[in-house]
Records
---
Amino acid sequence: MDKVIKNGTIITEAESFITDILIQHGKITALGNMDDRLDNAHVIDAHHQLVMPGAVDVHTHIDLQAGQFHTTDDFFTGTRAALCGGTTSVIEHLAFGPKGCSLHHQIDAYQQRAASLAVGDYGLHGVIQHVDESVLREMGELVQEGITSFKIYLTYNFALKDDDVLRVMRRANELHAVIAVHCENDALVNYGRRQLVDQGKTAPYYHAVSRPNECEAEAISRMLHIAHMADDAPVYIVHISTAEGVQAIREARARGQKHIYAETCPQYLLLTQDCYYQEDALKYVMSPPLRHQSDCHALWQGLADGTIDVVATDHCPFNYRTDKQAGNGNFTKCPNGAPGIEERVMLLFSEGVQKGRISLQQFVKLLCSAPAKIYGAYPQKGCLLPGSDADLMMIDPNASSEIRIHALHGAVDYTLYEGWKLNGDITTVLSRGDIVYQQHVFTGTPGRGRFISRHVTI
């Protein structure tokens, strides 16, 4: 049956207006007055509600093996939580595969798991953990298969050396692919961790001490210079957490670099390293760590002035009662990561829009259109245009809600935002025209999610 969303206030990245939306066969087919289409349609009354594109989360680790630990979600629980939080599309960052494996190794494994479990639509970033001619050739093959972005790390066991980073960036530029980068100075982080452990400073607080702002800022600056050496290759800096990182982005753009994209996450906007003094501090062990209030302020300013393009999550859930306890007594043993896929949209709406830090149009750009455009899913995703997938979320801005772990839809046993009061509430979510969440009831089924084949955009 056709669907008509009636009387809603449509929010795009550029404007707001009241109109109706016609949905047919999972696609948006028209905007305008639909009074003549109501007799044979399922009508959704959106009076007094904000109707927006379904959010796009381009930085998730839903299904991740990290050493001995595996994230608590799979593609069903992870995409279910995403949908109930207004996120209709995710692009997953893959775990490292066996040493020396092909790029297709992890892609194939994730495709197999996601196909039968995902309830929401998903894309995949390739992960590059070594560089040789075979890997550079495979990058081109994957771009042809709709995987137009790749993740590299400047830290962890498969960190790339600078010369290999340059090789990857030059190849990406040839392919018009986007390289996402985790920027921390690996040598300095590991030096700091060893020093602290040798001194017996192993409480969770020292996780933040071991990875100071300078480790992120230096790596971001170095990465941007390498991208410039690769003829201004497209580079996307994930999870920026520091004022210095924001400034490095500004300086590179001022030098004339055009293809720089910057991301932050709700935890870096809203939480500080004071959390590491709490009894449950292990919940907040993530990399990069939480920072100072001054860094939060700089990140909000970066959103407001356009320095930061995207708010994603870096959703990487490990249970507090079991997995995280491995770090009890030694923070270096704690699996890095935290949940957030369901909380992101309403946190940014309540703390950003409702508090006047960003506009509704910026909200849609940061969560929907910009991530879809940067990573080649637009206009299929991230917008409300005829021909786009009918992915929508509806928010009642006059309602109130509260974050409680028992009401969330992922598999993890905690939220970083337990008890947070929110101004606004998600009332309805549609994924390709299907109502998958309405009035706090989830109705999706495993396997209905589809792979998002993306195109190059640069």
---
Amino acid sequence: MLFDTKNIKEFSKTQYNKIRNFLLSDKSREFLIFLFFVVVSFCFWGLKMLDDNYQTEFTIPLKLKNVPKDVIITSELQNEVKVRVEDRGTVLMNYMLGRSFLPVFIDFEEYKKSGPNVIVPHSELIKKVLAQLNTSTKLTSLLPDSIGFIYSEGIMKKVPVMTNGKITPAMQYYISDIKISPDSVIVYAPQYVLNDIQSAYISPLDCENISEETKRNVMLKRIEGAKFEPSTCNVSISVDMYSEKTLEIPIEGIDFPKGKTLRTFPSKAQVTLQVGLKDYQAISASDFCINVDYNDINTKKEKVKLKVKSYTDKVSHIRINPSEVEYLIEETSNTATEDEK
């Protein structure tokens, strides 16, 4: 061992003697006497300073009490008030170090007769705060100037939840589905507030350039005087990748008079479209119809434009090739028509 018990005792004794000799020396005594008077002077200076008047700021908690079970507080009371006071330094030091302020209680029973929108008078708040202060303390300000709360006596309705924000897919992707769970919520509010609420909106949700399924838990956007149950929703955004598909669709004439038939060259057109991978196999030629309307034909032109008359909403960016075709309107004799009948 580097040190044994004997060596430790001798080292301690040596250090003690050095410190003792230093403190009993003439120079050390003079320094200690000087330091003593400095400390005494500082104490007198501090006491004089504390005897002067100062201003400082405190926060006092606010609480609501005696709320009936059938009452829903739809706009909560503020949590605290800020008070600015003036007094001698010793009193303010006592506030800061030796005393904690009790909550200021707002009794629901005292204000329920004023209606669902309650405003607590500023003078009442001042009285409740002054009750906790020394008589010598001057209250210079109390913020906020007015506090209050809104309540509902069980009045409610069910409303749908709507999305809110900017949701965009990445290149070659599209938003295939947006699910909100729950898709509707209960809203509690006074009748005059409830009348204007037709839906609940989630807080702005910004999801840009997403290329995979995205899930978020989001708060519902607050409405003054209303309380939503639940107050949050789960949003699931599904995306799918686009793929191109080409189909051959027959060209049909519509609104042609009796005895007239349309023939086009070619008789079919190619339709190229974009569709999500999950719906790729389900899309077929039967989902589309390419028509030529008799009323749109200009007999002075040799070609007629093609239009996709009907298609499923699962596809986008539809293109027809060719976009125009040559045509011929054949007339059928009335005799032939009558014989067929």
---
Amino acid sequence: MRNFSRLALVAGLLAAVFSCSPKNTRIQGTLADGAGKEIIVKMLDVNRFQVLDTVKVNEQGAFSYALNLELAQPEFVYLFYGDRQVASLLLQPGDQVKVATDTLGAYSVEGSEESLKLQKVENAYTSFLRQMNTILSTEENPNAALSRCYVDYYRDRLAYVVTNARSLTVVPVLFQQVNPSLPVFDQATDGLLMRNVSDSLKTLYPESRYVKALEKEAERRINLMDVNARINQASEVGFFDMELPGMDGQKVKLSEAAGKVTMLYFWASTAEQKMFNLDALVPIYEEFHPKGFEIYAVSLNMDKTVWATAVRNQNLPWVNVCDTRGVASPYVAAYGVSNLPMAWFIVDGDIDPEAKVSNAQDIRNYLRRKL
């Protein structure tokens, strides 16, 4: 009986090991008029393609490719003939898929429900873009027709996302664009939709790179909502207020830390910027702080420990806060931070748009005029 129990335990452990092992997934395909040609297999890596392999098409026009996928991590896999995408697949671990395509990209797929959904998603998107282009090229005053076309497509895709919230095919839908500067999902509340969908998908695919990318985009969108709300309230203090944790973990508002003249200073603890702190800012601060000068220094270090170590080692005397969201911070967008370091000056509660400083002497000259 004891031996039986041990065997059962071993069997259970082996089952657990194999259940977590990568699953062999296979694509069996044909390429019409493609005998002797090559198919390039690529995997989507969030926002770029990663080439997996090049597969030879035999004399009968058939090809085959196998890959191992981790459990609970479906992947977007694309087949290319030269530079042309000829099939789009969303493969689950263990899928055995049959693809029939041609060199122009007209394809059919069997054995993968998610791939069939993805095909319909891409066909709908292509049709929408084609319709928009037709309106632009044929309508004398296209704005009204373009608006109707966009609204109809947005509503249709919104319905698709809501009814397929547990399918990874909604991820590319949520990232579709009308053009490079206009996402399809551009409404103020779409960030909340993205977060709800990513929360739903995360229960099924917690380690999926695509779910993590959607979650990150949702956070960015929601941050922008917060930015817009704060901008609408900015007239109360004359500038866009912010609130970030300081060295003790307590949040400090820019409006509460402001002096007669406040330098809002975005930086990161690189060697060059740390030298600027000691060589330029500390002497300036010591000279002008008694006259009403304050610095609200926002570090964009994503590693809070690196920032805190720099502040302690340099004994920086001004208000020090850290935004570990880095360039994804809504404050970066609100203040148009394009490079580091970068400074804005707040004078008597208002942003001074005329302040032009590019070095320590500029800062000193500016403060002499204002204080």
